[in-house]
Specification:
CATH class of the largest domain: Alpha Beta
Radius of gyration: 16 Å
Number of helices: 8
CATH topology of the largest domain: Rossmann fold
Number of strands: 6
CATH superfamily of the largest domain: HAD superfamily/HAD-like
Strand order of the largest sheet: 1-2-3
Structural class: alpha/beta
Order of helices and strands: HHHHEHEEHEHEHE
Helix content: 40-55%
Number of domains: 2
Distance between the termini: 28 Å
Strand content: 15-25%
CATH architecture of the largest domain: 3-Layer(aba) Sandwich
Length: 169
């Protein structure tokens, strides 16, 4: 799974194909796995404080992820994220089927959500900031007024106008 993810983030694999291959490896796992995954995830130092600071200045914060709602939603709620879009894992009778359902969060969906959320808030795209780390984030990074490569793969660092190279805020 890690190898497939890494190759997709470097832009070597089609994201949709890579996602389906990764998810297929999860077939048969109990949905209790989400609790175990959540317990292992930690926010980068300063991430929640950054969201709080942005809110105090009147900004909205969105998270569009190629990850899964089953963990992303809980993290977003804990951090106070205003908008969330991620992939959905199919679960039947308490077990993962190895499939996703609904709209897959591709690079085009990431751009669409940036545009939707900007329009919803009466903003021009030039008034938005987008951060990402993988090839799937590049179109979104390039569409925003300020595009930032965050601890990103080389392909993203080479094309993003701004970079954050340390994981802590």
């Amino acid at each position: 799974v890690a190898e497939i993810t890494e190759r997709a983030m470097r832009g070597e694999l089609d994201f949709r194909q890579a996602l389906n291959e990764r998810v297929a490896t999860l077939k048969g796992l109990p949905d209790s796995i989400f609790e175990k995954v959540y317990a292992r995830i930690h926010f980068n130092k300063g991430a929640k404080e950054l969201v709080d600071e942005l809110h105090s200045r009147g900004f909205k914060v969105g998270l569009v992820s190629g990850g899964f709602h089953e963990t992303v939603d809980r993290l977003a709620k804990e951090a106070g994220i205003d908008y969330v879009k991620a992939n959905h894992l199919e679960v039947i009778d308490g077990f993962l089927t190895g499939k996703v359902y609904g709209e897959i969060v591709t690079k085009d969906v990431k751009v669409a959500k940036l545009k939707d959320w900007a329009a919803e808030n009466g903003l021009k795209l030039s008034q938005n900031i987008a951060m990402g780390d993988g090839a799937n984030d590049l179109p979104m990074i390039k569409t925003a007024g300020i595009g930032i490569a965050f601890c990103a793969k080389p392909i993203v660092r080479a094309q993003a106008p701004y970079q954050i190279t340390e994981p802590d805020f």
